Amino acid sequence: MRADGSRAPYPLKKEPNGTIVKETSLLIIDDNPGEVALLRRAVERAGVRCQVTVIENGSDALAFIRGQGKHALLAAPDLAILDLHLPLHDGVDVLQAIRESRTLSDLPVAVLSSSPVPGDKEKLEELGITAYIEKPSDLKGFLNIGFVVKDLLGQSTGVPSPLKN
Asked: 86 and 29 in contact (C-beta within 8 Å)?
């Protein structure tokens, strides 16, 4: 975050035709390296074009939201994928902080959860999640999450996604 309270400018990239465009960015907040690797693979296989940043715990995620710590200079992402079960601060704390943030309150957030606790989904919906994705039990299901991400980033090809509502 800059001194005036704003976030860094969006990352830019140069297209083959010479046009400068904003690079789409995805923030993954998840402490499980295996799941992060699968998410990266799923996004790549779905043909999503984006820069991926990973934050591995709730404390670092809260620092990012507040514009502090090692992720302070990151631009606001276009989408966040949030695991609920994080070390140091849970995903609900992180989601609440996002919604209360002056610079990130409108950030689309997809929650990735393995076992919904009764009432959790409703509480998350009240906090304004964009999507609720149940963690699949098999590789094929996990790789399909890439298509959900593609839909949420507006890069969809019309392929149906396994989005849970």
From this structure: yes
